[in-house]
Amino acid sequence: xxxxxxxxxxxxxxxxxxxxxxxxxxxxxxxxxxxxxxxxxxxxxxxxxxxxxxxxxxxxxxxxxxxxxxxxxxxxxxxxxxxxxxxxxxxxxxxxxxxxxxxxxxxxxxxxxxxxxxxxxxxxxxxxxxxxxxxxxxxxxxxxxxxxxxxxxxxxxxxxxxxxxxxxxxxxxxxxxxxxxxxxxxxxxxxxxxxxxxxxxxxxxxxxxxxxxxxxxxxxxxxxxxxxxxxxxxxxxxxxxxxxxxxxxxxxxxxxxxxxxxxxxxxxxxxxxxxxxxxxxxxxxxxxxxxxxxxxxxxxxxxxxxxxxxxxxxxxxxxxxxxxxxxxxxxxxxxxxxxxxxxxxxxxxxxxxxxxxxxxxxxxxxxxx
Length: 369
What we know:
Structural class: mainly alpha
Number of helices: 9
Oligomer: single chain
Distance between the termini: 135 Å
Largest sheet: none
Strand content: under 5%
Shape: elongated
């Protein structure tokens, strides 16, 4: 039996896959549980973090530019050059602040989606509620522990690791080192800057600015190294987790009923790849007897009247012989071949002679007598 998540072999003696910890017989993604795409958002996080690291590198090395400008101000005895150096430093810091804020917002959104996807992965064992993805960065003191615990759970359940990957510890240690050292360096820089003369009027005053920028450059090396390590490790983590979750979400089978063409849905006849329909075998039926026409359907036989009798049955020569019948019974029927006419029987001939009219000469003879 193969695991439906990683494709590795499983043993009936174990209740879960030894590689990805998916329970035996369970799908890669639980049906009916929503999942969230992290591919595009993960690429945005990587780009924002990389931009933040590059911009901070420029900020960290800016004191070298400030020292050059301070020397030029000392040579020209021009305090406006020192003011220009301060304004130029602000122009370096502002883009870094925007990139840092953008990376933080995108990182929180990506982490929330990655954490919610764990609820749809059978075998995943998240330890913290998705709400801690946001609250962990905002609650004082908790922001030293909660974010790394959330990331550790996401990395374990997404990368199929029994233990937290070392890269998570490297990222968090470097991030804490950067956060603390950067604040310490900023506080030290502010203290040193306040000791500088506001309006230098000799070489000693200008050289104080040169020394300030040189010392700031050295102090910035520690947070710069921590920033680069944290950024590099976070980029690798985000890329790996994003790829792993996207690959697992792609194995999801939609809940039934699913539109034709989706993975796991039946393919109807007529679609590409559908099996050809089998012709139905004819069912044997009993032979039906020939239909026998009923009495209503059988046309009546037409019999020719005897000689001397009209078709209406009145003897020929009768006053009503030529009259047409007043009532017609039954629908007209098709003509059928006439039967051969035979001589009437003696009884019919006698009856006809009895009703024959008297001769024309005898008419009225009794009255005239």
